[in-house]
Amino acid sequence: MVSEQGTDSDQESPGRYNRSFGGLTASVVVIVVLVVGIFLLRDLVFGTPPEPQPESVEYLDSVQQLQQNGFDVVYPVSLPEDWIVTEVGAELGEQPSYRFNLYTSDEEFVGIRQESLESARLEELLEQYVDEKTGREDPLIDVGDIASTWEGWSDDGGDVAYSAEVAGTTVLVFGDVPADELADLVSRLGTDEVATPEPVTPPS
């Protein structure tokens, strides 16, 4: 007859997969240390992966399309050396607005915003794009062709801005760059129609 009662050795021997909590914790710690070590070793051997670089866009094409649809856009006719435009945006309607995002040769951000005088006050634009507390700086006089005076602004963090009223709109140029570099960009702003390049005739 088969007995239903196990032997003493069966009752006293632990299961093969029984593990203590302390042993499990130690295993997890070892795995984490190994993973961290692998990432540190990778950085030492291959270096830290570079951050993605901003990509430029053909902004004059976008400006030309807006102009052909009857919108008066203030835009940089030319750019300082090694500066790029990374975005052109527009909110079209009865009170259109326009924006340009740029990066300097040192990869510092600079923005241009153009809003209808009826849709946004200068104080609101300064608060949104510069700082809630901005102080006045020396204005730009007779710089560029679209405004005789550009009011100067700055905040405690080093941001600089210039603003002017142009054809019923407020134009704000701002960025964390030296004032003279921003003034150079202001001097390049215009509203003239973008010329369509003449087609290149292939050699016969």
Number of domains: 2
Distance between the termini: 108 Å
* CATH fold node name of the largest domain: Phosphorylase Kinase, domain 1
**Inertia-based shape:** extended
Give a structural overview:
The protein is of the alpha+beta class and 204 residues long. It folds into 2 domains: 18-49; 59-190, MucB/RseB, C-terminal domain (Phosphorylase Kinase, domain 1), CATH 3.30.200. It is built from 5 helices and 9 strands; from the N terminus they run H-H-H-E-E-E-E-H-E-E-E-E-H-E. The strands form 2 sheets. Strands 2-3-4-8-7-6-5 form a 7-stranded antiparallel beta sheet, sandwiched between helices. A two-stranded antiparallel ribbon has the order 1-9. Strand 2 (84-91) and strand 3 (97-103) form a beta hairpin. The chain is extended, with a radius of gyration of 31 Å.
SSE topology sketch:
Blueprint: H1 8-12, H2 21-46, H3 59-68, E1 75-76, E2 84-91, E3 97-103, E4 109-116, H4 122-129, E5 135-141, E6 149-154, E7 160-166, E8 169-175, H5 179-187, E9 189-190
Antiparallel strand pairs: 1-9, 2-3, 3-4, 4-8, 5-6, 6-7, 7-8
Structure described in brief:
This protein has 204 residues and is α+β, with helices and mostly antiparallel strands.
